[in-house]
Specification:
Distance between the termini of chain A: 108 Å
Number of strands of chain B: 3
Largest sheet of chain A: 6 strands, mixed
Low-confidence stretches of chain A: 607-612
Oligomer: heterodimer
Shape of chain B: globular
Distance between the termini of chain B: 24 Å
Radius of gyration of chain B: 23 Å
Low-confidence stretches of chain B: none
Number of helices of chain A: 22
Helix content of chain A: 25-40%
Strand order of the largest sheet of chain B: 1-2-3
Number of domains of chain B: 2
CATH topology of the largest domain in chain A: Beta-lactamase
Largest sheet of chain B: 3 strands, antiparallel
Radius of gyration of chain A: 34 Å
CATH architecture of the largest domain in chain A: 3-Layer(aba) Sandwich
Number of helices of chain B: 16
Number of strands of chain A: 18
Shape of chain A: elongated
Order of helices and strands of chain B: HHHHEEEHHHHHHHHHHHH
Chain lengths: 612, 420
Amino acid sequence: MNALSGRRYVISAIFIVVGIIYLMRLFYIQVLNDSYKMSANNNVLRYMTEYPARGLVYDREGVLLVYNEAAYDLMVTPRQVKQIDTIDFCETVGITKVQFIKKMKQVKAYSPYKESIFEKQLSKETYAALQEKLYKFKGFFVQARTLRKYPQEIAAHTLGYVGEVSEKITKKNPYYKSGDYIGVSGIEKSYEEELRGKKGLKIMMVDVFNRPKGRFKDGMYDTTAISGQNLISSLSARLQKYGEQLLQNKSGAIVAIDPSTGEILACISGPSYNPNLLVGRERTKNYGKLFMDKSLPLFNRALMAYYPPGSTFKLLNGLIGEQEQVTFRETRYPCNRGYPVMGGKPKCHPHPSPMDLPGAVSTSCNSYFCYVFRSIIDNRKKYPNVVVGYNAWRDYVLSFGVGVKIHTDLPQELPGNVPTQKYYDKYFGKNGWKSSTIVSLSIGQGELGVTPLQMANIICSIANKGYYYTPHIVKGIGDKKKPRDEYKIKHYTKVEPQYFEPIIDGMQGAVDHGTSTSAKLKDIIVCGKTGTAQNPHGKDHSVFVAFAPRDNPKIAVAVLVENGGWGATWAVPIGGLMIEKYLRDSISKPDMEKRMLEGIVLSTEKKSKDDK
Amino acid sequence: MRKTEEGIFRNIDWVTVIMYLILVAMGWINIYASVYNEEHQLITDLTQKYGKQMIWIGTSLALALVILIVDGNFYAAVAWPLWIFVLISLVAVLFLGTEVSGSKSWFRFGEFGVQPAEFAKFATAMVIAKYLSQLDIKMTDNRTKIISAMLIGLPILLILLENETGVALVFFAFILVLYREGLSGNFLLLGVIVVILFILSLLIDKIILIVALAVISGVLFLFMRKTRQNIILLSSLFILSSVVIYSVDYAYNNLQSHQKKRIDVFLGKESDIKKAGYNVNQSLIAIGSGGLTGKGFLNGTQTKYDFVPEQSTDFIFCTVGEEWGFVGTAVVVVMFLLLLLRILFIAERQRSPFSRIYAYGVASIIFFHLMVNVGMTIGLAPVIGIPLPFFSYGGSSLWSFTILLFILIKLDAYRLEILR
């Protein structure tokens, strides 16, 4: 036996060795290895996002343009679904049993423990019916969320819409999580940060069946949601609505701006669509339809379409000529139904001749402005050659916010096009062009591309006699009710104030007794200018720009009706009606109004728009 | 009265008793934390597991007292009848028992259940002690080996029939007792080799394994003294290994799928944490997340919120790990280790071979439970459903360990009487 009693040490050693191995293993997993702590948090912590209410949008007169409507998503936690009456459930929700089985499979594949959306945005009726029975359908619950609603059903392009964030955005910006909503276009996009507010976070502890068990550390790490800020748009809902009606059955754009502030009063692109179409369950379907529509309703012509400005551009050339001291109020140029220098081209319509500067504006004399343009570019006392002269002219044009982005607060804005010297060098060859080569610029034709917003902005600069505020669509943010700081800055053009008077006289003349008489109003002096933009793809575009009243201007407007022919045919009456509507809120020419509202201008575009 | 009481507690090894009480109390507290219910905060609430455990503890202490009162000679005397009685109940339960999750090992009496397999542990420990303590028994005799193997093997067989594989495995711990009593160390070594072969044959293709063994045998053959005895030993070892490999392969392929999965998970062949590996993974997360000092009493989330399964019984160690951290687990492991070494110390001071052998039985059983139970929660042993002694919730388990330990304490207290 004594020989064997040594074996107690072997057995003790076995015990001790196993004990030490276990202690080492415990030390490793508990003290050295941190991964289990993270796994434990993954198990037990659920991060619940509290979504703030998105900010509302009002118009300048306090009319509600955008608000949130409650919508209900039917959610499900697959593990908790037990013994439900499938037939009753399917009937209540309005799906077939096959769909039910398919959806359950999908959500189970995502996670049996975590909740996922079973059915998006239930209708009010379905929600009401379901709510009564919900207690019977264990594992299902309804989560409230909000949908954007546009009660006025106007300004679709301007207000924009919201949609689920793309993966690209969630990767770039950690604020957004898959399934969140974000402004996709319009104000919704450009004021996304102000509108969205700040999400709150609630950390809950859950058990293995995902049942909430309480707040993590008594809510120490929780944050509350902060609602988005309300916006006051500079739009006038009544003017916007009126403009949209006027542009019915026509393609084109109307932009109205308050020159004294740069606030956009109306921004219409026709054809338009009801903004509520791009909300909720039907969104994808409706978007597809609009996208395929040949009249391009999704295309925001007011900010994105490039049109040749036509005769309205003569205003700029007149101003530049004066500033350059080559044209004066009394300067007279001959016109013989055309520009004599180039053998009567470009042509002109019959009118008394020779005329002074205001008269040439009123009658829209082509020849006159060809002379003006030539005298600017070919001023060899100042500019050694055509290239320097052209660049000087171009700089003037750019100072009116044409050919460059003016950085409005709408996201789709495009810069327009004023050809560069390089372009002409390439097109005609170096030294291969002179002022006569590009003479069409003097009457707003040629390679010029100007957006309706830019046209209206030119008129603002004229109304203000030499400066503009960047046009903007939001005049008040949140409780401060102020616009962004950059919209309070005056942008001066390169033309000094004293040179505007003759041009404005000419514009008043155009309305009083010239080309734009249908825009004339009693007791309000309207200053305007027509344009007939030659269009290589079809019938000419009808253009009109105007501001009123002459003293202390309150509205500047640019109207473009695609394929509308003469400016006077469509654009002038529409512009006049817009001005009267805004300044008086009543219409003195009901016949004209009726004609405009009911008028149909068929598109004669041969190809898809490439004059954009 | 006073005299009898003195009699009962006379010569008792208080160190062991105190360690027992500490372990039981720690178990109770951890059961309370693991299934803590805010609506029933009282630890004595009888509707909750912790309230019921209090009853088990109370009855266990009563049992302990009874064991101490009974005469010291009694246990050696009843060893055989008790063992036979347990065997009969193991057979009976196969016919009369209630089936619980695939195994038929419980007698149900209303609310309460008794599992004869639990009691087979100390009955077998006693009968081995009784058999081996006979004067003319030598462990080196083949007859002794065979009878010992039968004494251990019979209950294993019956328990396997009940489908309680985990409990059956506990009986292999008796090899330590036999070793202490003279069984060649080669058997212990053989046991280790069989375990290694067992694991290897599940991990490696059997053909490759046998070829590798053949190569090793060949190399050994080249270098060893080529006596007849050595050659026989080597070739029989090789043949035996091959048989083990083939039978393991056969057994594995005929296992039930859940058993197969558990083995796969343990071997790391399967890591699907949602299914078979779920228990081990969650158990590791619970213990691992405890850190050095734990999350604090009642602050465990993994155990309390049911991420860890069976958190009051087989996985009670997770609560220790999560709420008390490494400090807690180390204290528990060291406590058990001290208890085991104390039992070995007690064993070696016995004059009666019966008492000594029985003590080794007790140590072996507790050690095996500790090794497998803690091992499975930290991923060092396959998931085998056996409780942590004194800790896990449950009457049968606590009773059987109490009986097991207190018979030893009684025998130890009685050792001086034998002297006299």
